[in-house]
Amino acid sequence: MIKLTPILLIVLYALAMWAFSAWRLRAELNARSTPLTDPRLAAALDRLGAAMGLGRVRAHVYEIAPVNGLAAPDGRVFLTRGFLDQLDAGRVTEAELASVIAHELGHVAHGHTRRRMLDFAGQNVVRAVLVGVFGRMVPVVGPWLAGLVATALAARLSRQDEYQADAFAAALMIKAGFGTGPQKALLGRLDAMTGAGGARGLAWAQSHPPAASRVAAIEALEARWQVR
Q1: Does an H or E element contain 33, and which?
Q2: pTM of this prediction?
Q3: Is the dihedral of CA 219, 224, 227, 228 positive or negative?
Q4: Do residues 108 and 71 make contact, with C-beta atoms less than 8 angstroms apart?
Q5: Spatial separation of the C-alpha atoms in residues 94 and 57, rounded to whole Å
Q6: What is the pLDDT of residues 53-86, one digit of tens each?
Q7: Distance CA 5, CA 86 (A)
C-alpha cells in the first residue's frame, strides 16, 4: 500500500484539478454569456431543432472577441461575440453559423466535453507518471519528453472528437435543409478568420485537424450517404 501512495496522491490531485476546472469554466460561462436571441439566427435555430425533433435550439453568446464555438459540460452550446461580429461585418452567413452550432451540438451528443474534462484529469496522472519514468531514464530531458507524449495523446483524442462532431453537423445540416455547403465553406476560411493559418506547428500536436482534412472527411461521408 505504501508503494501505491504516490500514485493515489496523483490521482486525488488530478480529480481535484478536474473539479476545480469544471467549476471555474461554469462560473466563467455564467458570468460572461447571455442567451442567443439574435433575430437573424432564429430561423436557423428553429430548423436545427426541428431536424432533431425538438423545439428551437437554445444557444448562448460567450462575450469574448476570438472567433470560436464552444460546448460546455452541462450541454449548453455557445457562439463567441467574435463570431457574431463576423456576421455583422458580412464575413459569415446565418447558415454558416448554424453549422457551428450543429458542430457544437455534435460535441454534446457524443459527450466529448464531459469526457475531455475527465481526460484532463487522466492526462495529469499520465504526465506525472511519465515524468517519474522518463526522469529516471533520461534526467535532463525526461520531463520534456513526458509532456510531449501526454500532449500527443491528448491531441489525437481531440482530433477524433472534431471529426465526429463534423460528421454529426453534416448529417444535421442536411436534414435541416442547409446541406453541407455552409459547413465546408466556413471551414475553408476558418484558419484565416481565427488567425491560425500560419501557426499550426506539428500536425499531431494540434487539437484540431487541418481544415482541408475536415472538408475532405465531410465529402467522403456525403459520397457514402449518396451510395446508400
Answers
A1: strand 33-35
A2: 0.76
A3: negative
A4: yes
A5: 14
A6: 999 999 999 999 999 999 998 899 999 999 999 9
A7: 52
